[in-house]
Amino acid sequence: MKHFKLISLCLLVVFSTSIWAKGSVDTVAVWSASMKKDIKNVVITPEGYDKDKKATYPVVYLLHGATGAHWNWIKKAPFLPDLATQYGLIIVCPDGDGYSWYWDSPVDSTFRYETYMIEELVPYIDKNYRTQNARTSRAICGLSMGGQGALYLSWRHQDIFGACASMSGGINIESFPANWNMEKRLGSYAENPDTWKKFNVSNMVYLLKPNSIKILIDCGTDDMFYDINCTLHEQLAFRRIPHDFISRPGNHNWAYWTNSVKYHLLFFDSYFKEEAEKAAKAAAKAAAEKKK
Questions:
Q1: CATH number, residue 125
Q2: What is the pLDDT of residue 176?
Q3: Counted domains in the chain
Q4: Least buried of 10, 22, 27, 195, by fewest C-beta within 10 Å?
Q5: pLDDT (0 to 100) of residue 5
Q6: Rounded distance between C-alpha atoms, residue 111 and residue 119, angstroms
Q7: The whole model's pTM is what?
Q8: Three-class SS string for the chain?
Q9: What residues in the chain have per-residue pLDDT under 50?
Q10: Number of other CB atoms surrounding residue 38 within 10 Å
Q11: What value, to the nearest 5°, has the Cα angle with vertex 117 and ends 116 and 121?
């Protein structure tokens, strides 16, 4: 486990007006059979994707927060195509509605965003893009509601995602039950406390085993969710679950998130390379054993 306390950090990067020259940005509508509607997603592919038809790529799913939409990330962080090119990966920014929390709502059958993400979107991306279709080449992260969603989805579906990260995640929903339409998704907290506990990421640490999934938790010290993120970090540490924890000055805003996403993509790139190296060594060992 790594615990980073960053006292001061200033990143100043100047991008040209032709920022997307190093990658392609498309908006793709994916039909959700579970919700009977098309859902828009921004898909970012690296430079050279259309030229080398044999190359395959790992995928990072990048989730928006409450009140957001699929276009939030590319609008606020127009450098993402550069990073997709730098790390050689595909970035998918789905539309999770303004207040889905990326759940299959137990009280509103029109909100089935866990089913959409796991059973509809991921298979669509793997079918229509040259992905490395394996959990060790697939990661998910997000901000605020999306940070909660990234941990919720990945911890429940560790066969799909090999790595996950949360920035400023609202990861203890029981601490703010009257906010952000959650009662519309889960029912009244007073009347349905067991349901709320079931959907609370902070109560899902039991799903994890040491090194079963790569984890990064990131939150600014001035963030309204800072204390609950620190508590989750302590829960993971108590259970000896390896993870990275980043705590640095910052608030619950895009200034923080557009900086954080650079660390998250670096974190995922390191994970993808480590897993690729392990696979290569295992293949070489198997080949050597076969020759004996």
A1: 3.40.50.1820
A2: 87
A3: 1
A4: 10
A5: 36
A6: 14
A7: 0.91
A8: CEEEECCCCCCCCCCCCCHHHHEEEEEEEEEECCCCEEEEEEEEEECCCCCCCCCCECEEEEECCCCCCCCHHHHHCCCHHHHHHHHCCEEEEECCCCCCCCCECCCCCCCEHHHHHHHHHHHHHHHHCCECCCHHHEEEEEECHHHHHHHHHHHHCCCCCCEEEEECCCCCHHHCCCCCCHHHHHCCCCCCHHHHHHHCHHHCHHHCCCCCCEEEEEEECCCCCHHHHHHHHHHHHHCCCCCEEEEECCCCCHHHHHHHHHHHHHHHHHHHHHHHHHHHHHHHHHHHHHHC
A9: 1-21
A10: 12
A11: 85
Contacts of 276 (CB under 8 A, 6+ apart): 136, 137
Contact 64, 41 (CB under 8 A): no
Q: C-alpha 188: how far from its chain's center? A: 28
- The first and second tokens of residue 173, run together, are 């929903």
Residue with tokens 């050689």: 88
Cα–Cα distance for residue pair 89/81, rounded to 1 Å: 10
For residue 70, what are the contacts with CB-CB under 8 A and spacing of at least 6? 27, 39, 40, 41, 42, 64, 93, 94, 95
- Average pLDDT of the chain, as a whole number: 92
Q: How many CB atoms lie within 10 A of CB 48?
A: 13
Q: What is the pLDDT of residues 52-78, one digit of tens each?
A: 999 999 999 999 999 999 999 999 999
pLDDT the model gives residue 285: 86
pLDDT at 149: 98
Place of tokens 């038809």: 53
